[in-house]
Specification:
By secondary structure, the chain is α+β, with helices and mostly antiparallel strands. It is built from nine helices and 19 strands. The chain has an eight-stranded mixed sheet with strand order 1-2-6-3-7-18-8-17, with helices on both faces. Helix 1 crosses helix 3 and helix 3 runs parallel beside helix 9. It starts with 9 loop residues before the first helix and ends with a helix. The chain binds zinc ion.
């Protein structure tokens, strides 16, 4: 079994984590190594749920915070083992998000008496279907393990604080028509032609920009798919347009759907799937103290992330971690040594 030395410096530890391959669904070796390393620490109580690990201090502090990261990566792309070139560490997961996991593990190992009680969570299956997500499983089956005043997900954010996240909803707009032979088109009604009106409305749509807790969330309503057509000689009797609505944290999933429905009031609209938005909760004391300690200007997160799982449990959460999110999932992903060190130092300041 690979062994991890949590007392080695954050660069060495990041490389050691990258070098234990942990593609989604195949995290056992890394989870074993992390469990073995955490279990040796007398100040933490470590529990394992599948390939997800939870380690917590119990010092009776006034506040409890979660520091979390996923162990898995996207598939290998000829980018293992790790290598260091100048001030950058390259390799699968270096950016997303073994650099952040290394910082969290360093804190877990070295902060014996943090000023806030800390629950460290290292989970599996973040990069694949949502139902397999280790954090989601934990929030459904053992929500007590995630109870906290505030959570930090150490996803790559260039050491900036990204608060909350937008919600996402997919719906289909169904356009009816009347089938006919295309040689006698006047006897039918073309459902695909009816799409023009819907597409024009989407193109002209003016998305809201919504301030929540001082951050401005920019919404979007876009066509992301279209289907229709029966055969090369048939006037089609149905066309469906899939729209994706990215909505600000001031709306629930139901309110988001109601908005899509009223935007296309004269059409049949079917809801497909959705995930809630998360408010940044930056006005909470634990969050405000965090923002002050890491000395970063909070910005809104565009996209859906696991911070929403904490929001559903009533725990405000932010993304904060080393690495540039635009490099995530790229073959040449890397993390800057300076950012690793800065994140470790700032997180340590917050917890000390
Ligand atoms: Zn990630």
């Amino acid at each position: 079994m690979s062994s991890l030395d949590l007392h080695s410096d954050v660069v060495t530890l990041t490389r050691a984590l990258v070098d234990v391959s942990s593609v989604s669904g195949d995290e056992r070796a890394l989870a074993d190594a992390v469990e073995a390393a955490l279990s040796g620490l007398g100040h933490l109580r470590t529990q394992r749920f599948g390939n997800t690990l939870v380690a917590r201090t119990s010092l009776g502090r006034a506040e409890r915070v979660v520091v979390a990261g996923h162990l898995d990566t996207v598939p290998v792309a000829d980018n293992l083992p790790s290598r260091q070139v100048g001030d950058r560490i390259y390799g699968l997961g270096a950016c997303d998000m073994k650099g952040g996991v290394a910082v969290a593990l360093r804190l877990a190992a070295t902060l014996v008496e943090p000023v806030r009680d800390v629950t460290y969570v290292f989970y599996d299956c973040e990069e694949i279907e949502a139902e397999k997500n280790g954090l989601g499983r934990l929030s459904r089956e053992h929500p007590d393990t995630l109870a906290a005043d505030f959570a930090v997900l150490m996803e790559p954010s260039s050491a900036q604080v990204e608060g909350g996240c937008q919600g996402t909803l997919r719906a289909e707009i169904i356009l009816p028509g009347k089938r006919a032979h295309s040689a006698r088109a006047w006897m039918g009604e073309n459902a695909i032609h009816a799409a023009a009106e819907v597409l024009a409305r989407l193109a002209a749509y003016e998305p809201r920009q919504v301030p929540v807790d001082g951050l401005v969330y920019r919404e979007g309503l876009n066509a992301v798919g279209i289907t229709g057509g029966v055969a090369g000689n048939v006037i089609p009797d149905e066309c469906r347009i899939t729209v994706n609505y990215r909505f600000a944290p001031d709306r629930s999933e139901d309110e988001a759907f109601a908005h899509v429905r009223e935007t296309f009031a004269e059409y049949a609209v079917e809801r497909r799937d959705s995930a809630p938005a998360a408010a940044p909760g930056l006005s909470r004391p634990a969050a405000a103290a965090f923002v002050a300690a890491v000395e970063a200007e909070p910005r809104p997160k565009f996209g859906w992330t696991d911070v929403a799982r904490f929001a559903e449990l009533g725990v405000p959460a932010v993304n904060y971690g080393p690495g540039e999110s635009a490099l995530a999932h790229t073959k040449d992903e890397f993390v800057e040594v300076a950012e690793l060190r800065r994140c470790e130092e700032r997180m340590r300041a917050w917890l000390s």
